[in-house]
Design goal:
By secondary structure, the chain is of the alpha+beta class. Helices cover about 55% and strands about 15% of the residues. A hairpin with a 2-residue loop joins strand 3 and strand 4.
Length: about 170
């Protein structure tokens, strides 16, 4: 019977596909249903610390360099190619590396799709404590942060070294 496991590249592809589809679906739903009759954003309060608030980010992370347009599209394309290059150069990428790089790639592609189609990134997740708000973000941003976090933890975690010396 043939082995039907995904393997690292299959897992990476699955994470990227699932991540991009989920990111785009959540952005579509937020921007379709959290608007008033004039199409302007309104706030949907979900909990004492979480709102859904529509935001159109024409800049980079946390809204820096607003109006960067083409610059951020080029930067995003370069990031996508860099991630793919890193993955192809990491021979024997393990389970965690596939998930981590898949998350970063899915997030980069999700935001790149927004930049190309709309000229901005659609953000809608608003975390806050009282009147102090974290910059509004989206699922693509979560995937990027989680992927980077997994990579850092994977790099910093101690590994057991197998001895390759002959036993005698």
């Amino acid at each position: 019977m043939p082995n039907r496991s995904l393997g690292p590249s299959g897992l990476l592809s699955l994470v990227v596909l699932f991540g991009v589809v989920l990111d785009q679906a959540t952005k579509w739903a937020a921007f379709k249903y959290i608007t008033d009759s004039h199409g302007s954003g309104k706030i949907a309060k979900l909990t004492f610390f979480l709102n859904l608030t529509l935001s159109r980010n024409e800049g980079g992370v946390f809204g820096v360099l607003q109006g960067g347009g083409v610059f951020f599209i080029i930067l995003s394309v370069l990031a996508v190619f860099a991630i793919i290059w890193i993955y192809t150069k990491s021979a024997g990428a393990d389970f965690l590396a596939s998930i981590a790089l898949g998350g970063v790639l899915a997030g980069a592609l999700g935001n790149l799709i927004d930049r190309i189609l709309y000229g901005y990134v659609r953000d809608f997740i608003d975390l806050h404590i009282g009147a102090r708000h974290w910059p509004t973000f989206n699922l693509a941003d979560v995937l990027i942060c989680m992927g980077v976090g997994i990579m850092v933890l994977n790099i910093l975690s101690p590994r057991t070294q197998r001895s390759h010396s002959p036993q005698g």
